[in-house]
């Protein structure tokens, strides 16, 4: 089946009446029928493309397993995310944007080698057209958790950020199959996205799931988040040592570690965890560093 016919077939299936899946995980079952249909359409195309691309574990071939391992695991982050966004609303009430913010001029600085390097002064933040939060899924891969979050929170504007063209091609097809209008796919390395004037300081929330260790993720995620925004990293059971080792890195890029929150999802080693970080101040202009450097030489 061609890609165009596959997308059309899945989109038609998403518009059809919902068929309850008794094997689905409980968080999925409790969703409205329309959102269940969208997630079903997403999983159909995910499992189809995964036969040729390494999007998720090849061992996952049935929807029932995909529901629990990927859908419910993504949905488990929502309580922590919602609390972060509630804190942001309080922050904005106490620190309203400057009236002349739209008139401010912001340009990347030039570093010693002549290339662009983002200013430590935060770029003026622009609210979304819907008034909902702007969210970026860093290292989105197969679109997890970004696509699931976009389905259950249609008022959010979600960006799926990934560096590989083949994965971005898939997520664009998945967005179309699920009928999502609140998602954009951006193909770029996170280090470059963090220096892009159109992306730096522009998100209320960054999420990352199973991408890299926290010292690396801090440098990739926080430059994209506006001051007062949050970064939520999904981790496995007992990440306390990793969190302790990342504390200095988080501070260097403008973050403040808020703590750990156990989420309602089980990993191979026990309950999974959400690491919560607030963007306390603008990220210094030297971060993120050149592509590949954060991974080779994590901040410490």
TrEMBL record:
<keyword id="KW-0963">Cytoplasm</keyword>
<dbReference type="GO" id="GO:0005829">
    <property type="term" value="C:cytosol"/>
</dbReference>
<feature type="region of interest" description="Disordered">
    <location>
        <begin position="281"/>
        <end position="300"/>
    </location>
</feature>
<keyword id="KW-0698">rRNA processing</keyword>
<dbReference type="InterPro" id="IPR029063">
    <property type="entry name" value="SAM-dependent_MTases_sf"/>
</dbReference>
<dbReference type="Pfam" id="PF02527">
    <property type="entry name" value="GidB"/>
</dbReference>
<dbReference type="GO" id="GO:0070043">
    <property type="term" value="F:rRNA (guanine-N7-)-methyltransferase activity"/>
</dbReference>
<keyword id="KW-0808">Transferase</keyword>
<dbReference type="InterPro" id="IPR003682">
    <property type="entry name" value="rRNA_ssu_MeTfrase_G"/>
</dbReference>
<feature type="region of interest" description="Disordered">
    <location>
        <begin position="94"/>
        <end position="132"/>
    </location>
</feature>
<protein>
    <recommendedName>
        <fullName>Ribosomal RNA small subunit methyltransferase G</fullName>
    </recommendedName>
</protein>
